[in-house]
Amino acid sequence: MKGLILWLASLVNEVHDQITLRFGIQMTDKELHFWVIGLVGILFFLLTYLMFKWIDRFKFKTTILAFIYTFTMMIVLVFAIEIQQAITNRGNMEFADAVMGLWGFVVFFFIYSIVAGIMYGLVQLLKKRKNTKNRTGVSGYEKKSVRKK
User: Fold this and answer.
1) How far apart are CA 147 and CA 18, in angstroms?
2) Which one-letter DSSP state was computed for residue 92?
3) Cβ-contact 74, 104 below 8 angstroms
4) Would you state the pLDDT for residue 139?
5) Which of 34, 46, 71, 149 is 20 to 30 A from 52, alpha carbon to alpha carbon?
6) Which of 112, 80, 114 minimizes the C-alpha distance to 97?
7) CA distance 116 to 109
8) Contacts of 130 (CB under 8 A, 6+ apart)
9) Predicted TM-score (pTM) above 0.70
10) Which of 52, 49, 46, 50 is nearest to 64 (CA)?
């Protein structure tokens, strides 16, 4: 994990150096952050927008979007915990720990999906049975008047 963060830091430094060398543009860190994060952010937004438009076609789109949002937040959380462990020396900063934490969320979400799917199926079955009973040829108004007598 520490190696990954160091590699990412060196990658950022290399990008900064390449922008300066290739384009001859001298920027402060604030200016560089403005342009790079702005461009990366808008590209990420466009990709996310296209992906969500595609997801919009599915029946369970709210569940899919909630999963994506939660998974993204979990990635931020597990890496924040790993970085905190490195800073405070209260644990080992390891990429494998972050991956196992994310696997935990995926497994629990899978279990939730199975339970929710079974419950959804039962509700649909009960609705279907209720609709079948209502098609016996007796209208709702006639049922009410028969009960009153």
Assistant:
1) 84
2) -
3) no
4) 53
5) 34
6) 80
7) 10
8) none
9) no
10) 52
Q: What angle do CA 19, 25, 29 make, to 5 degrees?
A: 70
Residue 28 is classified by DSSP as -
- The owner of tokens 């543009």 is 25
Burial class (CB in 10 A: 0-12, 13-18, 19+), 122: exposed
Distances (CA, A) of 28 to 23, 25, 33, 96: 14, 10, 9, 35
Query: Contact 51/59 with Cβ under 8 angstroms?
Result: no
pLDDT in tens, 87-116: 888 778 788 888 999 999 999 999 999 999
- What's the rounded Cα separation, in Å, for the pair 83 and 94? 9
What was the pLDDT predicted at 102? Answer: 93
Distance CA 94, CA 82 (A): 7
> In which residue are the tokens 């939730």 written?
112
Which residue type is seen at 32? Answer: L
Task: Say what the pLDDT of residue 103 is.
Answer: 95
Q: Residues 4-27: what's their mean pLDDT?
A: 78
- Can you say whether residue 24 is alpha, beta or left, with left for phi > 0 and alpha for psi between -120 and 50 degrees? left
Q: How confident is the model at residue 61 (pLDDT cuts 50, 70, 90)?
A: confident
